[in-house]
Recover the amino acids of this structure.
């Protein structure tokens, strides 16, 4: 995730638990300042990764982990950034992709979503 997003969270982000795929930099820079949950399952418990493999939605995992704020390259209305989420902050579009699992490059902003107004599904 972007250091720009991390800087915004550090300076202006509300208190609460943040969740992000690829949360390494966010977790490192916000250590002791904000609670951060890695939502890609790579550094979480086996149970978390197992739920991902079984098809548990990211939104359900976010809720189960107590995540209030999602930091991600997501378009509003996607399953893990539902329409009920409020965008608190957004960057300019940044290039993303070009790897093995995403051979094309897209330009999507990094956003901080507030999931507080979303009810559990």
């Amino acid at each position: 995730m972007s250091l720009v997003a991390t800087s915004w969270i550090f300076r202006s982000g509300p208190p609460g638990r943040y969740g992000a795929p690829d949360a390494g930099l966010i977790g490192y820079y916000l250590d002791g300042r904000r609670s951060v949950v890695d939502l890609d399952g790579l550094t979480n418990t086996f149970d978390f990764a197992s739920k991902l493999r079984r098809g548990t939605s990211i939104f359900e995992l976010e809720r189960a982990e107590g995540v209030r704020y999602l930091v991600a390259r997501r378009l509003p209305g996607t399953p893990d950034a539902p329409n009920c989420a409020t965008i608190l902050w957004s960057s300019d579009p940044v290039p993303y992709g070009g790897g093995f699992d995403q051979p094309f490059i897209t330009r999507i902003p990094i956003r901080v979503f507030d999931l507080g107004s979303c009810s559990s599904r």
